[in-house]
Each structure stands twice: as structure tokens, then as C-alpha cells.
Amino acid sequence: MTAQETQRAATGDGERPRFPFAARCPGEPAPEFDRLRADRPVARVTFPTGDTAWLVTGYEDNRTVLSDPRFSRALTTRPGAPRLQPIPPDPASLFSMDAPEHTRLRRLVAPAFGNRRMAALRPVIEREVELLVDGLVAAGPPADLVSGLARRLPITVICELLGVPTADRERIAGWVDVLLSLTRFRPEDVARARADLKGYLEGLVAAKRESPADDLFSELIAARDSGDALSEEELVMMGATVLTGGFLSTASEIALSFLCLFRHPEQLAALRARPELLPSAVDELLRYNALTTGGGLLRVASEDVRLGGVTIATGEAVLPAISAANRDPDVFDEPGRFDVTRESNPHLTFGLGIHYCLGARLARIELELALAVTLRRLPGLRLAVPVGELRAEGGHLIRGLPELPVAW
């Protein structure tokens, strides 16, 4: 057998699975991930676009893809590059940059997500959760925890941080929903949503130049206008990046976390009895919940790279399957078991390397306070429908819940 035939046999080339895979339950990774990690940890898959990529399912291989500069984000924006979504990534987005451009822009926005700013935001977020729970209580059960809490909290917080007026937040949420589509919306709809969001942010920049405020966008505008290395396009795209990254993923994680606790009543009882377990419970929820179709951002190899027993050729796409890495039995003891007391938990949910999630601290705080306040205020909180009736969002990068009916 030739070397090429050996590699084809090892990776299953010629029987490429179609990605994304279907999960059996919202929040759970598809069973294909376990099978591939055991048999073909680096395997070719076909995307809805018709493009192919290497899907990486093992923990250590995921760490390599996430941190090795030979796996480039910037190359995914080149004409003809393989893509997962209906339209190519925007090259001006922080998500789509490699160092040193990425380093320069991240340095400008990082202080807004630093420890000091997050500590100041914590009581503000807690008050917002209290108000949202007030609304749930006033309306009475049954209630939808998605529309009543999970979506409203992160869109409020991220828009407050950036300086987006209250009246515009639902429009922002709608654009982000479309932008993170896989197959739900046509390519032209996704392109229009991107253009509409950028157009809106251009107008917001102009308004804040006239009337600066105490918000991140005003700070970035000041940096731009004082001669810092930030173009007008980069300024607008920084706003789009913060909004896209700070809303839907956190909203979906909150909803999936409540569902996970409902599905594991003994763990919910332990958390209620011992609120001091909340930090470890948050980490375990972040590890356990399969939030997206696979996990990380698509990369393109800038040179031939040997990974997981196969050679990834220059120009080929690689997708880190973080949901699979977070269930790797070589790293996590009984990875399929949800345990709020788990101590060793080096999950990769927020990524690794230069693209480690900028808003990781903020997401943790929002999830922790959403759980703490709601479980304290609604001690009888429970799922109001059978789990089997719930369906995750289809045709979308984010596998959240359209609704989560609860009672108390």
C-alpha cells in the first residue's frame, strides 16, 4: 500500500461524513464525535457549502490547531478558501486576523474586558438578572426562560458595554442571529445582515463622535481619532466583533445550562444545597454543553502540517471540534458524566492561543449570576415540558434553544 493509500485508509478519505452532525439532545455533542475521536481523530468532512476540511476531535490535537500559527485564520478570508458558512469571513474582523494585526487590535479592546472593568460590571449584571427574574415572577408560570432571561441578559450587557441604545438592541440581536447561520438563511440574506450591521455601526460611530459617552465604542473612537493604529473599517468591525461574540453564544449557554441542570436533578440539588459550588459548576457546564455545531473557528494550513497521524496540506481547512475535545477520556475522568464538583477541568470552550475568547470573564459572570439569582429566587424552578419535546436551533452555528418552558 502506498503512503497515500495508507493515509486514505486511516482518515476515511472517500467516505467523508457530512458536517455538521445531528445531536440527539440539545446540549449534547453528536455521537459521531466519540466515534471519530476513537477511530479517526483527524478526519475529512464535507460542509454544507460543499467544501471539505479536516475535523479534529482529540484534546491535544485541538490544542495544537488552536495555538499553532501555521493554522491561520487570515487565510480563511482569501478568495476560494474553504468555508463553513454561506459567505466568507470579513478580513477586517478580529476573528479573522493573525498576528501581528490581531495583536495590535486586541490590545486596544482588551482593557474593556479586564478584571477591573469586569469587577465593576458584576453588580450591574446582578441587578439586571434581578429585574429579569422580577419580570418572570410578575408574569407568573409557565414562562419561557429563553425570551425572559437567557437572550435578554447578554444583549443588554454587551450593548451597555459598547454603548448601543436600548431601542436598537432587538435589531442587533436579529442581525447576529442571521450572521451566525449555516443553512437557515440564504447567502444573500447573510451578506445583507452583515452590511446592515456595519451600516448601523458606521452611523453609531458618527453619533458618538458628536456626543461621546462612557462606553467602549467612545473609547475606541478616541483611540482612532488620536492617531492610534486603527482604521475606520477596523473600528466598525471591532464593534461588530464584540456584538457578535458577546450575545448569542452567552445567551445559548445560559439556556443550555439550565436545561442541563434540569436533566441532572441530583446535580441541581447539590448546587442548591451548596451554592459555593457555583464556580466549579459553571466550568463544568462550559465543558459539558455542546454549544456549537463543533466548536472553534475554521483555520487554513499555511504549510504542510503533520497532525494526528495525517498530513494536512498547505491550503486545506481544519476545524477544531472543541465539543469533542471537552469529552476526551484521555483528559477528563468519565467525560460523559456531568459533575458540578469536578475539580480538574481544563476545558477548551473559550479556545486557546491568540484567539482565546476576549469575553471569557464576562461570559462566566453572566452565567454564574443568571444561575445564582434565578435558582435563589425560584426555588421550585423546573422544566415545564418533557425533554424530548425540546429542539436545538437548526441550520445554525450556535446550537441554542429557541425556547425553554419552565414552571416553579
TrEMBL record:
Region (Disordered): 1-33
Domain of life: Bacteria
Oxidoreductase listed as a keyword: yes
Protein keywords: Heme, Iron, Metal-binding, Monooxygenase, Oxidoreductase
Residue ranges of the TM segments: none
Family according to the record: Belongs to the cytochrome P450 family.
Protein name per its UniProtKB record: Cytochrome P450
